[in-house]
Structure formats: structure tokens, C-alpha cells
Amino acid sequence: MEWMAWTLPTALFFIAVGLMLVGMTVLELRRPCIERRGFLPIVTTRGDRLFIGLLASAYLHLLIIGVSDWPLWVASLLSLAWLVLVLRWG
């Protein structure tokens, strides 16, 4: 495991993703979702929106880091805001 820089932010990121997956599983078991249409151009379920939101947030994060000199926490907050937006209204 020495190939990976296991820092606290890295560990927190993977813990957060794992907790989101567990939370979505519990939520799906307690309250099954129905497909709906939001601002995304396709009909989606909660799980679809989580997957699309995580992917888009990762690309947004990399884009901000790559083309700006903003601090890492700004990119992280913008990515988190985008994820919440997609989960809620996507």
C-alpha cells in the first residue's frame, strides 16, 4: 500500500464515499425511489444521480485544479456543491 499517499484528506474522501453508498443503500431499502426527471436530460433514480454527481464532481475538481490557482479547498467546496445540486435537483 506504499504506492498511495494515504493522507488524512485521502482517507476522509474514501470514508465519505463509502458512507454515501451505505446511506443510499439504507435509504433505498427504507424508501424505494421512483424514477424522475430533473435538470439532467435523462430520467434518473437516486443511485443514478449519485453516480453522475460523483463523476461530474471529480471532473469539476480536476478542471478547477488544472486551470486555476485557487486553493484546493475552493475546488473541493465547489465540487461538493455540485454533487448536492445534482442529488437534489438532477
From TrEMBL:
Keyword flag Transmembrane helix: yes
Name listed for the protein in its UniProt record: DUF2160 domain-containing protein
InterPro entries, sorted: DUF2160_TM
Superkingdom of source: Bacteria
Please give the start and end residues of each transmembrane region: 6-29, 50-67, 73-89
Q: Which UniProt keywords apply?
A: Membrane, Transmembrane, Transmembrane helix
